[in-house]
């Protein structure tokens, strides 16, 4: 059993009072404990601002990038151990664990490379000088410099490793110290990863703080100069966004919240072709990878009416073949959801979907479980629903609004038109990613332009990429992650774009040769 400590003001510390337990969600055994009560969050933030900030700002992008490279190597160095911890505390199969942990090192490495590319400067120059008066002497430019406070990162339970790393990579490269907090229920991997980061000796004092458990009053201490990046439920995201002290201090609050991501199968798609097979593969992977606990998972499947039976048949067959059980077993392909509370929420959501649609498959707890003792573990079967009239009020309210964060999706028949597909996509109120499967160029273009304003990312599936695309659920560091509306209206990653959250853009005007020389980035 692991006793998790927080890393604050350069020391590993533990709070006092009754500890919270972390479980193996397949067996319900206790695998760790943590307590943060009594830890001084205000002082920890002050240390990050006063010590970590200046240390990071004194480094060039290349030097910050080199730190990220060492952090990526640290993950690789304890990869086997992390995979095991992920399996016992995240309910994740080996393949799901790799997705999280390799995703973390890959993202850190990608930003390490960006740091090397940005080289010896400490700030970014944004665009060229523009002449502002009749005289060529007076001109203006834009620069971006690191914000002077601390970046607070609050993460969801589903990607404890990647979630920590993707935010950390961007903030450190921008030059901001980080106070990071994983969700308590799955904090084990993030805690061990942070230990490895600290052990590298690469991080300047105060550059990284880690809260192993409840954040206490951390958010109350945020002030001008700080940044809050939150991933989690939309309700909490809204609360942070509207917190009066954050608004008054002008603290940027980036929210990555929930999303009812959709897949659209185009009217040209042939049931026996590669594009249909790709769509079915992606949809089923998203329903079951990480037991459907992915913010990018496909929840709504828009299929032309004449392909509905084929889609149902394909997904049900795949679900029937899937081995569910203790993720430590090699043959198991789907583990439990991550807590009793999560299971309750998923089962409630499935019940709501069943009232508005036809249930095709799924019966709460799976009837066959591998390597599981009795009724232990927070297991949920793969559920598939079909809505006969997805635009009708009751189905629409639930299917397009209730995020069931588990192994479930709903088939929505549509007439094959861009107009109807877009109208249904729009009911989601803004999403992280939508996928369009088609080999028709015109349908692709029309869908792309119609769907883009509702989404942060569009995944275009076709026979040309059927063998090479990793699917819509994989978030790449080079592309932005986030989405409008209920998805939180936030934006992370996207290569250099991600740094904007942690940097202040300033317009500088004056004598052109002077500002060009002063702001050349080095
Ligand atoms: P959650 O209940 O909103 O919790 C998210 C995080 O907020 C956890 O670390 C939680 O800590 C923390 N938290 C709760 N109250 C806090 C407070 N007063 N101050 C500071 N932190 C606080 O969400 P979740 O159940 O972990 O995650 C599931 C949701 O996240 C889903 O809706 C999913 O769609 C969304 N999600 C979105 C993305 C995305 O990128 N858009 C990615 C993953 C997940 P404790 O665990 O200690 O309570």
Show the helix and strand layout.
Layout: E1 2-3, E2 6-8, E3 11-13, E4 20-23, E5 30-34, H1 41-57, H2 61-77, H3 79-90, H4 94-118, E6 124-131, E7 138-146, E8 151-154, H5 160-174, E9 178-181, H6 187-199, E10 208-210, E11 227-231, H7 234-241, H8 244-248, E12 253-256, E13 261-265, H9 274-288, E14 298-304, H10 308-321, H11 340-356, E15 358-361, E16 383-386, H12 393-399, E17 408-414, H13 418-426, E18 431-437, H14 441-451, E19 455-461, E20 480-481, E21 492-493, E22 503-511, H15 512-518
Parallel strand pairs: 1-5, 8-9, 8-11, 9-10, 11-12, 13-14, 13-18, 14-17, 16-17, 18-19
Antiparallel strand pairs: 2-3, 4-5, 6-7, 7-22, 15-16, 20-21
The structure holds NADP nicotinamide-adenine-dinucleotide phosphate (NAP).
NADP nicotinamide-adenine-dinucleotide phosphate binds next to loops.
Hetero compounds = NADP nicotinamide-adenine-dinucleotide phosphate
Compute the separation of the termini in Å: 49 Å
| Cα-atom radius of gyration | 24 Å
- Describe the sheet with the most strands: 7 strands, mixed
What's the total count of β strands? 22
According to CATH, the fold-level topology of the largest domain is Aldehyde Dehydrogenase, Chain A, domain 1
Overall body shape: globular
Give the domain tally: 2
Low-confidence regions: none
- At CATH's second level, what is the architecture of the largest domain? 3-Layer(aba) Sandwich
CATH superfamily of the largest domain: Aldehyde Dehydrogenase, Chain A, domain 1
The level 1 CATH classification of the largest domain is Alpha Beta
Strand order of the largest sheet: 15-16-17-14-13-18-19
* Strand content bin: 15-25%
Q: Percentage of helical residues?
A: 25-40%
Instruction: Return the structural class.
Output: alpha/beta
Number of helices: 15
Mean of pLDDT? 95
């Amino acid at each position: 059993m692991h006793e998790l400590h927080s890393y604050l003001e350069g020391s590993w510390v533990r709070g006092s009072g009754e500890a919270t337990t972390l479980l193996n969600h397949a067996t319900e055994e206790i695998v760790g404990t943590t307590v943060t009560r009594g830890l001084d969050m205000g002082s920890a933030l002050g240390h990050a601002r006063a010590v970590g900030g200046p240390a990071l700002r004194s480094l060039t992008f290349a030097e910050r990038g080199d730190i990220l490279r060492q952090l990526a190597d640290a993950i690789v160095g304890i990869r086997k151990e992390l995979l095991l911890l992920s399996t016992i505390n995240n309910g994740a199969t080996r393949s799901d664990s790799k997705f999280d942990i390799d995703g973390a090192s890959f993202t850190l490495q990608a930003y390490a490379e960006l740091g090397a590319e940005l080289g010896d400067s400490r700030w970014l120059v944004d665009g060229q000088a523009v002449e502002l008066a009749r005289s060529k002497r007076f001109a203006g430019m834009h620069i971006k410099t690191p914000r002077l406070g601390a970046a607070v990162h609050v993460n969801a339970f589903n990607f404890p490793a990647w979630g920590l790393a993707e935010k950390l990579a961007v903030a450190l490269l921008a030059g901001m110290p980080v106070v990071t907090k994983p969700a308590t229920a799955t904090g084990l991997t993030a805690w061990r990863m942070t230990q490895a980061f600290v052990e590298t000796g690469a991080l300047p004092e105060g550059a990284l703080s880690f809260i192993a458990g409840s954040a206490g009053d951390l958010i109350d201490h945020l002030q001008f100069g700080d940044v809050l990046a939150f991933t989690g439920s939309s309700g909490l995201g809204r609360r942070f966004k509207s917190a009066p002290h954050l608004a008054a201090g002008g603290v940027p609050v980036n929210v990555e919240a929930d999303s009812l991501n959709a897949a659209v199968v185009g009217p040209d798609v042939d049931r026996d072709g590669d594009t249909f097979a790709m769509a079915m593969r992606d949809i089923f992977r998203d329903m079951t990878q990480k037991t459907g606990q992915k913010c990018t998972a496909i929840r709504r499947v828009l299929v032309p009416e004449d392909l509905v039976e084929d889609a149902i048949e394909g997904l049900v067959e795949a679900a029937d073949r899937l081995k569910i059980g203790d993720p430590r077993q090699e043959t198991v392909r789907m583990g439990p959801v991550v807590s009793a509370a999560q299971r309750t929420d998923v089962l409630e959501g499935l019940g709501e979907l069943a009232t508005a649609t036809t249930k095709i498959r799924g019966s709460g707890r799976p009837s066959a479980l591998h390597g599981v003792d009795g009724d232990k573990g927070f297991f949920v079967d793969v559920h598939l629903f079909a809505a006969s009239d997805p635009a009708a009020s009751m189905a629409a309210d639930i299917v397009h609004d209730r995020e069931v964060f588990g192994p479930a999706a709903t088939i929505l028949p549509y007439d094959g038109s861009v107009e109807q597909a877009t109208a249904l996509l729009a009911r989601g109120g803004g999403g992280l990613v939508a996928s369009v499967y088609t080999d028709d160029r015109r349908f692709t273009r029309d869908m792309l332009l119609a769907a883009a304003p509702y989404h942060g990312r569009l995944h275009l599936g076709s026979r040309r990429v059927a063998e090479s695309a990793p699917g819509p659920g994989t978030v790449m560091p080079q592309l932005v992650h986030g989405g409008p509306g209920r998805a939180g209206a936030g934006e992370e990653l996207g290569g250099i774009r991600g740094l904007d959250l942690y940097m202040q853009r300033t317009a500088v005007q004056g004598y052109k040769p002077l500002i060009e020389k002063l702001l050349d980035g080095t």
